Structure prediction request, 666 residues.
Amino acid sequence: MTVAIEKPEKTQAAEPAAPVEEPRKVSRSMVVGAILAVWLLLFALLRGKQTLALGAADLTDLHRWFNDVNDSIGANRNSNPLFLYFFNEIRLVIDSLVTFVQELISQPSADRPLPRIGWLGVVGVTGYVSWAVGNWRVALLAVAGFTFLGLQGLWQESMDTLALTLSAVFVALLFAIPLGVWAGLSDRFNRIMTPFLDFMQTMPTFVYLAPLTLFFLIGPASATIATLIYAAPPAIRITAHAIRSVPKTTVEAADSLGATRRQSLMKVLLPMSQRTVVMGVNQTIMAALAMVTIAALIDAPGLGKTVVQALQSLDVGTAFNAGLAIVVMAIVLDRVTTAASGREEAARHSKNRFLTWRRPLLAVGAAAMAVLVYLSHTYVWAAEFPGEGDTGSAMSSGADNVTTWAQDNLSGLTNAVRDALTNGLLNPFQTLLTDSSWWLVGAALIALGTVLGGRRSGITTAVCVALLVGTGLWSDSMTTLASTVVATVLVMLLGVVFGVWMGRSALVDRLLRPTLDAAQVMPPFVYLVPFLALFGATRFTAIVAAVVYAAPVAMKIIADGVRNVPATTVEAATSAGCNTWQIITKVQLPMARSALTLATNQGLIYVLSMVVVGGLVGAGALGYDVVAGFSQGQLYGKGLAAGLAIVLLGVMFDRITQAAARRAGV
Prediction:
């Protein structure tokens, strides 16, 4: 039997399945580009419509309401129980403290034509304290610095500034250190305090002044209260960080030995965090000195008032002399407190036998200091600084001569730089912001905030935009926003160039970092003086000063970010044949993206505070509104609204950039 085997039918070869196309991801940069393109298109169609422009002398209902509130408070200040038993009492206590310190070192007291401690005694106390908490080099610097203040002819002004600074720091630390310890011990309290500290440190210095004058009047009390509020957050933060940084094993060992909570705090936590806490005191003193000089706008005495008056009259020589005095005082206070933070550790690691003689020498020094204080209290020659301040006059004349020379010989170059950046970058961007419809700019800002920072940032931006419209100063806010963004772009350009250079070269970092540290010590006012001489009273002056003021912090953050890129990654890129440019652009900068975002955040905050201060030298916009509110009673309400607008811009910038930094991996 034959079995037929059927030939299998030839089947069609199976075709490979077509690959499923994955949807292409849209990057944030593409979305940002689309938002800007739509904005530009609608700007071209709607230019000049619904811009909410407001004249310099015009007021809104909100501004008039603020004026009425100010008038009402002034009329009822001595009858309203809230003021009679609370605000007035606080002002009286602070005034008494400031007056006491001023009569001690700067102003004539009730029964004396001179302070109780004259210049010789102040210099002696300064030198002795600097030696006691630091070393003999710091003491020499302190004595030389304070003597130089007298040679400038600014002894009384300098002592007034020092009196306000010491008063504010004393009160600030009374609250800041306990709050910092509490925040370090309690996670819950730390979470509660953090938003308030963020908010306080985000606000530019100008903003503290207007509302405080509403409750405490213009004068030293308001200046001191504004200063201590501004200066307290660094001490709180750093103290909390110091407490939290103590090793847990050490605390557990103390607990196992039966130490109570109070003993653990007093015998373990505080002694082991002492150095970091002193660093917090250093930051508080620097912040207080910066704020005291700006508080001259509300009639705070001292060097700040001299600088403000000189800037308003465009007297570069006087402004330079007083600004230099502020710098000298800042350097002395910074070096003394920095040395104090490291002295104990240096003594612990030192094997110098000379240290065994330190206590007897300190006793001898205390006796010499007491003699100097007695002489300055008793004799006029030791109380009044000798001379007429010829050194200061010579420096003022020299600064005026340099200014005249620069204006005669460098005006072509400076005007070319100013016009190029103003016409090529600032004016077009400012026009885009101020001539666009308010709702278009608001929608663009909300969209950008959402894309860059996420949904919460978008909501925060929406709230800030709505409140900015409510202030009645939308156009001025956009002008300030334009100057801030342009200055921040320039800051980041400098930050990337020098930050990468510092991050890649240890030698460059050692050379540049001390200069950057010194630049961060100087109060904002000081930066206006040289650029006022070069560029005159224009908004460009404020922008350049803001760039120089903010660039150091951006450079240091970017340098640290580049340095933290793993060396193995860089070596792998080098072995793969990458050149220096490729390593920087393809490896180091992308891996330091979080540092770049953080640098942008800090640069924006620094720039905003400086651009607003620039209202003193022709920057206009919100800065001018605040200054005008102090000097012209009918514009007080507008100045208060301008301060609120500055806060809103700062909060908006801070939230967007912080959220973007977290997205980048901070």
